[in-house]
UniProtKB/TrEMBL annotation:
Residues 253-263 have a biased composition (Basic and acidic residues). Residues 1-99 form the OmpR/PhoB-type domain. Pfam families: BTAD, NB-ARC, TPR_12, Trans_reg_C. Residues 1-99 bind DNA. The keyword Transcription applies. The keyword Transcription applies. Keywords: Coiled coil, DNA-binding, Transcription, Transcription regulation. Belongs to the AfsR/DnrI/RedD regulatory family. SUPFAM superfamilies: C-terminal effector domain of the bipartite response regulators, P-loop containing nucleoside triphosphate hydrolases, TPR-like. InterPro entries: AAA+_ATPase (IPR003593), AfsR-DnrI-RedD_regulator (IPR051677), BTAD (IPR005158), NB-ARC (IPR002182), OmpR/PhoB-type_DNA-bd (IPR001867), P-loop_NTPase (IPR027417), Sig_transdc_resp-reg_C-effctor (IPR016032), TPR-like_helical_dom_sf (IPR011990). One of its GO terms (molecular function) is DNA binding. This is DNA-binding transcriptional activator of the SARP family.
Length: 1017
């Protein structure tokens, strides 16, 4: 299928023109896609092309309709959606506009004028009139058609130059008369007509052409003819033999561009931006500054873009090295660069002026009326580039730099970032070209990520692997994973990531170098802007100014929006290089001092957000709390958002401090984070990382108290994860260490933790002594909140044992103590505990009253997990009263919350509650589904008491279904556990058969080996 737009739009299939064509709007879409066939065209550009400045509200839906119309006539798969737009996958040789451009480009590379003339005739023969003549789009008429017409006229002028070189002046004279009449302001055509007439011996007519040109230009534009036409006029007046000058025909024009990288990959969207802008600009001057970090491929992209656009600039393509980041030579001076470009366009050495201003003026004059593409590579700053810019229209300048060159007036900027993952993998595969990437896809993906998808780093790793065909990709992954040797691995031949970063670093001033080194000391990639001040020990404005210099050098990047507090990102390879420099050039004491200031800054912010937490988490660190006694202050959502954003940096700060031997700051921040964030939102992984890092540091330092405190923290973490036996081991370790150091408060906290774990394991005989001793110690120390924790644990155990009076006494005292300490969450949990005692005695009103009070508190303070537990308590009360239906949606919501927060106990508890609801409603199959799932969870958690309670309910479902054998099997197993543990349910066993109308057995259940194993689990 062939497409023609150099005239009215036509589609041909096997020499037959397709009729009818799509609707007018669909033809507009087709035209825009054909202009960039083989490249993704952004949807916004298509919408602009079809509707200009007035798109309908449903423009994108309409566009989908037009795309569907086109797909009906196009080959399958030829037109497809490819973010951020659409791709028309048509071979260039099937679209006349691309064939035209290809022939023109081939003619410009031709060895002889005859070949060039023939190719240009072929190209011009594709034109059938005004391009896109039947496409009624202002965007096409104003932005596309003028560009295409300009390309045709340029090709026509080049063909005339080739014919003149072949001596065809006689036959050209008449044609040129007609062309000049049609385009009276095109000086090149005037000059060609003057040359043809002169060679025909018609000197007077040639001079007359110049006079006509002058009259038209003065009248129409108010300017004299350009220097080229004036030079030709003077030569004819003096009857001189013309001096050959560079032109766009044949081999005369200059092309200094380096070769395109053969395996250049990706950057389609970036290229499309420049191409679209050039098309929009028409003949206007365009300056693009391509900036980015070292190794991102700025030069390769600029050369690729220049070669892609070369056909639009027939008067030459120049490449100038400015050496802005070179270490072995000074940046190219503007004088030297101007000398280079002036010679490139044919200015003789004796004509080059001395001063920069005169050279720049001559350069602008030489480019007047020409279409030249200039690549200025590796610019140091805007001052180096400014004299090299053309003065008029018709040219394109591509500047590459590691800096943003924000002082370059009128320039458009394109920041090159690392490659998208798919493009990075594609580049890696092309470099190896042996199937290893396809066979080890996961390893290859990790390689490009460890290379940060940086083109230079990928090329280095690709070159290393290509030279080692016996290496699997996984071997390179193992070497790159080690941060200490990663920069060593990213070097091959004369290519090295470290070298590029080193050049940029050495170009900085000393304050910026110090900032770079200290950023490397931090050890993490994302840095809040406010941290620069404590890191550098400078006032905030001065610190910000220095970091902004690193931003200009592309060593850091801003990741925040203008409306957010500023955040910087340091790429991993940059961070590793900065750390190398810090360890080599910064004294250890200075590095520790800087990190200490940062940790102190974090602590001052984190401590203001420390929360009162439930009894599971007795606090060791002494910090100012987030709420005052008697108050329940909700947690603002922006607090969670702040921690969510800063968590990686906070974790890295603890780990880095620990790595540098700063044990106490690491331990202090690690524990504060538990109460401010990790425990509040179940951030278990971060909790574990920080505590393990700090624990290793304090062990090296020999501080037993801090070691014990961190062991307590790990015990609390294991408890939160429902890993009760590891939790008991951590608390036991802490207890022994605290007793060695004589820390009575620490001993009490560890005992409280041991009691807490024992009560969950239903080891009530072990729990009560530990909790009682903790209560005595904490009360003696005047620790009201710690006393409340111990009282809550005692009340919990008393309730499980059926000692309701003692349970109410302890739990009510816990409520009062929590109130005094200002711990609203603890108060809510203790109120819930009181309600559970009343519910166990069927005192529904009292139970619901306490559950409601607890529920209101946890909702007010915004604790979503505790809200699930108070919801469950209320739901079970209603179930016992036969009114459970109204709570089923809330229970299902709570199930989702517990899943999100990885609370396995909560999941099992809510599933059991749902099972109890279905049991009470007579929905026995549904009840067994939920109860069996809960049963599996209790077994996995190693909680025999809760498993036995669920077995009791499961037995009830069998009894109600008329299966007494299955009922008694479940009840027998449950009864053994209740009697062994001595819980309140042991006294209820005998009444189960009557409660659920199941035939009674005379004999007591006999404990089997399996039941004995389960009961002791």
């Amino acid at each position: 299928m062939d497409f023609r737009i150099l005239g009215p739009v036509e589609i041909w299939q096997a020499d037959v023109r397709l009729e009818p064509l799509p609707s007018p709007r669909a033809r507009q879409v087709l035209a825009v896609l054909l202009l960039d066939a083989g490249h993704v065209v952004p949807t916004d550009r298509i919408v602009e092309a079809v509707w200009a400045d007035d798109p309908p509200p449903n423009a994108r839906k309409c566009l989908q309709v037009y795309v569907s119309q086109l797909r009906r006539i196009l080959p399958d798969g030829a037109l497809r959606h490819s973010p951020p737009g659409y791709l028309l996958d048509v071979p260039p040789e099937r679209a006349d506009v691309h064939v035209f451009r290809s022939r023109v480009a081939e003619a410009r590379r031709a060895e002889s004028p005859a070949t060039a003339a023939e190719l240009l005739r072929e190209a011009l023969g594709l034109w059938r009139g005004e391009p896109l003549a039947d496409v009624a789009s202002d965007w096409v008429r104003q932005r596309v058609v003028p560009v295409l017409v300009e390309e045709r006229l340029s090709a026509l002028e080049e063909r005339v130059d080739a014919d003149l070189a072949l001596g065809r002046h006689e036959e050209l004279a008449g044609e040129l008369r007609r062309l000049v009449a049609g385009h009276p302001l095109r000086e090149r055509l005037r000059g060609q007509l003057m040359t043809a007439l002169r060679r025909c011996g018609r000197r007077a007519e040639a001079l007359q052409v110049f006079q006509e040109a002058r009259a038209v230009m003065v009248e129409e534009l108010g300017v004299e003819p350009g220097p080229e036409l004036r030079r030709l006029h003077e030569e004819i007046l003096r009857d001189e033999t013309p001096v050959p000058r560079p032109s766009s025909g044949g081999r005369a024009r200059r092309n200094d561009l380096p070769r395109d990288v053969p395996d250049f990959t990706g950057r389609d969207q970036e290229l499309a931006r420049i191409v679209s802008d050039v098309e929009t600009a028409g003949a206007a001057l365009r300056v693009w500054c391509v900036h980015g970090r070292p190794g991102v491929g700025k030069t390769a992209f600029a050369v690729h873009a220049a070669r892609h656009l070369a056909a639009r600039y027939p008067d030459g393509q120049l490449f100038v090295e400015l050496h802005g980041s070179s270490s072995d030579q000074r940046p190219t001076s503007p004088e030297s660069a101007l000398d280079t470009v002036l010679r490139a366009v044919g200015v003789a050495a004796e004509r080059v002026p001395e001063t920069v201003a005169d050279r720049a003026a001559l350069w602008r004059a030489e480019l007047a009326g020409r279409r030249v593409l200039v690549v200025l590579d590796d610019a140091a700053d805007a001052a180096q580039v400014r004299p090299l810019l053309p003065g008029g229209d018709g040219c394109l300048v591509l500047v590459t730099s590691r800096r943003r060159l924000s002082g370059l007036e009128g320039a458009r900027r394109l920041r090159l970032d690392v490659l998208p993952t798919d493009d990075a993998l594609a580049l890696f595969a092309r470099l190896l070209d042996d199937g290893r990437v396809e066979s080890e896809r996961d390893a290859a993906a990790e390689v490009v990520e460890l290379c940060e998808r940086l083109p230079l780093a990928i090329r280095i790793t690709g070159a290393r692997l290509a030279a080692r065909s016996h290496w699997p990709v996984s071997k390179l992954v193992a070497r790159l994973r080690c941060e200490q040797q990663r920069l060593d691995e990213l070097a091959v031949g004369d290519l090295a990531v470290r070298t590029g970063l080193g050049l940029t670093y050495l170009a900085l001033d000393e304050p910026s170098r110090r900032a770079y080194r200290l950023l490397g000391t931090l050890g993490h990639a994302n840095v809040a802007g406010w941290l620069a001040a404590p890191l550098l020990d400078l006032p905030e404005p001065a610190a910000e100014e220095i970091v902004e210099r690193l931003l200009d050098a592309q060593l850091v990047e801003v990741t925040s929006t203008p409306t957010e507090p500023v955040r910087y990102r340091v790429h991993d390879l940059v961070r590793l290089h900065a750390r190398e420099r810090a360890e080599r050039e910064e004294a250890e004491a200075d590095r520790k001092a800087a990190l200490g200031r940062v940790v102190d800054a974090w602590m001052s912010r984190v401590e203001r957000l420390v929360e009162h937490l439930p009894p599971a988490l007795p606090r060791l660190c002494q910090v100012e709390l987030n709420s005052m006694p008697g108050q329940a202050r909700p947690r603002p959502p922006e607090v969670d958002a702040w921690f969510e954003q800063e968590e990686p940096s906070l974790v890295a700060a603890v780990e880095r401090a620990a790595e540098l031997g700063m044990a106490e700051p690491a331990a202090r921040l690690a524990e504060a984070l538990v109460f401010a964030w990790f425990a509040v939102r179940n951030r278990h992984d971060a909790w574990e990382r920080t505590h393990n890092a700090a624990l290793a540091a304090v062990r090296r330092s020999g501080n037993r108290d801090s070691e014990a405190a961190l062991a307590c923290g790990l015990g609390q973490l294991a408890y939160k994860r429902d890993q009760l036996r590891p939790a008991r081991d951590h608390f036991q370790t802490a207890l022994e260490l605290f007793r060695q150091t004589g820390n009575r408060r620490g001993e009490a906290v560890a005992l409280n933790g041991l009691g807490m774990v024992s009560r969950e394991l239903a080891d009530h005989a072990g729990a009560l002594p530990a909790l009682t001793r903790a209560h005595q110690l904490l009360r003696g120390l005047g620790d009201v909140e710690g006393t409340a924790h111990a009282l809550y644990g005692i009340g919990y155990v008393r309730r499980e044992l059926g000692q309701d009076r003692a349970a109410l006494q302890a739990l009510t005292a816990a409520v009062r103590a929590y109130e005094e300490a200002g711990n609203q969450r603890g108060k809510a949990l203790a109120l819930r505990g009181v309600g559970l005692v009343y519910r166990a005695n069927d005192e529904w009103d009292q139970a619901e009253r306490h559950f409601r009070l607890a529920h209101e508190i946890v909702r007010e303070v915004g604790d979503t997990l505790l809200t699930c537990y108070t919801t469950q308590a209320l739901a079970k009360t209603r179930i016992r009263q036969g009114r459970g239906d109204e709570f089923v949606p809330a229970l299902l919501d709570c199930l989702g919350v517990c899943r999100d927060l990885h609370d396995r106990f909560g999941i099992a508890l809510i599933r059991r509650t749902l099972g109890e609801h279905h049991l009470a409603a007579g929905e026995l199959a549904l009840a067994r589904d939920q109860l069996n799932l809960s049963l599996l969870s209790w077994s996995s958690l190693g909680l025999p008491l809760w498993r036995a309670r669920t077995l009791r309910d499961l037995g009830a479902s069998y009894a109600l279904e008329g299966d007494p054998l299955a009922a008694h099997a479940a009840w027998d197993e449950a009864a053994v556990v209740f009697r062994r543990l001595g819980t309140r349910e042991a006294a209820e066993v005998a009444g189960w058969h009557a409660r659920w109308n199941c035939p009674c057995r005379d004999e007591d259940p006999v404990e089997s080996d399996e039941q004995r194993r389960v009961a002791s689990a």
